[in-house]
Amino acid sequence: MHQLAVYDMDKTITYAPTWTKFLVATARAESPWRLLFLPVAAIAGVGYGLRVVSRPRLKEIAQRLLLGGRMPEATATRAAARFAEQLDRSGIYRGARDQIAADRAAGYRIVMATASYGFYAEAIAARLGFDDVIATGVVREGGTIRAKIAGENCYGPAKLTMIEAWLADHGMARTDSVVRFYSDHASDAPTLEWADVGIAVNPHPPLRTMAALRGWAVEDWAR
């Protein structure tokens, strides 16, 4: 049997969402003048709130504004390592670290499944000792990272689809796997339902209510 412990990232293992923080930190370090576009990115965020801009499109717009339409791979790697170091120092729940260590000690393969872009989430996962990362992909061309999502945004039902594809790619049948899944948000309900053990971590109110109705465990790593 394969034993998998699958973790969402933002607000499950981290104190706060990481994408905007990564964008701002990278723009400040690499191209400070791009911070002038923050108000424009905020307007795009309002468009998302009004449902006239999709979640994937919002990510692409924000990336284009603050990182540029094409970012050299070397710059992205440097930025990801710098951000991961900062986050590891002061942005990770102690409870998340303890649970990752406990799952590893119990023989679980530790997997991150996040809607964040893999090009920076992988650096965070590496510092925390994850074995694998399932994340939103980005188009890569000619040694650059483009402001364009490759494939699906790893969010909601798409996250489950991508986890299932990852299992198949690694030769693991669901019937031969025991899966634990940790998340803070109701958007991950499909994966929480699919897992053998679903754990609502630091849940926002809708997920806390859902967990009570469906019998999922609830943990508070923020304490």
Write out key terms for the chains shown.
globular; eight-stranded mixed beta sheet; Rossmann fold; alpha/beta; 223 residues
Compile the SSE list and pairings:
Blueprint lengths: L1 E6 L11 H12 L7 H12 L5 H13 L2 E3 H18 L3 H12 L3 E9 H11 L3 E10 L2 E7 L6 H13 L7 E7 L5 H6 L2 E5 L3 H10 L2 E3 L4
Parallel strand pairs: 1-3, 1-6, 3-4, 6-7, 7-8
Antiparallel strand pairs: 2-5, 4-5
Helix pairs in contact: 1-3, 1-4, 2-3, 4-6
Would you mind describing this structure in some detail?
The chain is of the alpha/beta class and 223 residues long. It has a single domain (2-219), classed as HAD superfamily/HAD-like (Rossmann fold), CATH 3.40.50. Helices cover 48% and strands 22% of the residues. It is built from nine helices and eight strands. It has helices spanning 19-30, 38-49, 55-67, 73-90, 94-105, 118-128, 157-169, 189-194, 205-214; strands spanning 2-7, 70-72, 109-117, 132-141, 144-150, 177-183, 197-201, 217-219. Strands 2-5-4-3-1-6-7-8 form an eight-stranded mixed sheet. Strand 6, helix 8 and strand 7 form a beta-alpha-beta unit. It starts with a strand and ends with a strand. 37% of the residues are buried. The mean pLDDT is 96.
